[in-house]
Amino acid sequence: MRRILLWIFFIGIFFVGIRGGKQVVSTVTVLNPNVSKDLPIYSVETSKKVISLTFDTAWGNEDMKEILSILKRENVTATFFFSGEWVQKYPKDIKKIAKAGHDIGNHGDTHRHMTTLSKENQKIEIIEAQEKVKGITGETMELFRAPFGDYDASVVRNARELGYEVIQWDVDSLDWKEYGVNQMIDKVCHHKNLQNGSILLLHTGTKYTKKALAKMIQNLKHQGYTFLPVSKLIYKGNYYIDANGRQRQK
After folding, report:
1. Which of 9, 19, 40, 172 could disulfide-link to 168, CB 3.0 to 4.6 Å?
2. 75 vs 9, 63, 78, 219, 228, CA distance in Å?
3. What is the CATH number assigned to the segment(s) 43-249?
4. 160 burial class (0-12, 13-18, 19+ CB within 10 angstroms)?
């Protein structure tokens, strides 16, 4: 019975009423009851050929200097998501990254699976990472990415209650699997999801990321893409996130 009623509802919204011999078209917004509204942003709907390069940072800092050098040489501003533990170990790097104009995002304090934590502990993970970054840069972060991409509706809601927008990705380099430089470049540059408004996921502290990064950026530029940090790619208001995690303006 519930399925029949839903079909009647969906069919009904497409009918056009006839009043006084004139067509009267009504705008109807239909929300799929099976899709959660508590989704992170995987990509952004835009007519511009822009994408965002993001790095999850929770391991060592041995490749950070070279990554920053490549980004500067290629004139790309990226977004880095840092764990609080990493920030505590490498405060000088955080200062360099902030000074270079890159986004600094929150990646939780101890790089834990957020969905295994209570609501209180989810917020503690976010707040403690925030305090460590603020103590070094003096700035408040606005972007959060759950470690391992592990989120549910509770994680998204709690992050938003703390003033964060939750960011996922639609193009995964799989650099942490360390398949090789060429495989990594091909994976990103010919990814089935690559499109205007894509958010690309990479990591620091891997074997091949720094070796593949320059050629990857150059290939993407050759395809006509330009780069924006996530903070400048996403919409800040009057938007919705569709069932695929794509942020769209209303």
Report:
1. 40
2. 51, 18, 10, 14, 10
3. 3.20.20.370
4. middle
- Going from N- to C-terminal start, the domains of the chain cover 43-249
Residue with tokens 């769209």: 248
pLDDT in tens, 145-192: 999 999 999 999 999 999 999 999 999 999 999 999 999 999 999 999
Residues ≥6 apart with Cβ < 8 Å to 53 = 71, 76, 78, 79, 200, 202, 217, 227
Summarize pLDDT for 26-80 with one digit per residue, the tens.
222 334 433 446 899 999 999 999 999 999 999 889 999 999 999 999 999 999 9
Closest-CA residue to 100 (of 68, 56, 147): 68
- pTM for the whole structure: 0.84
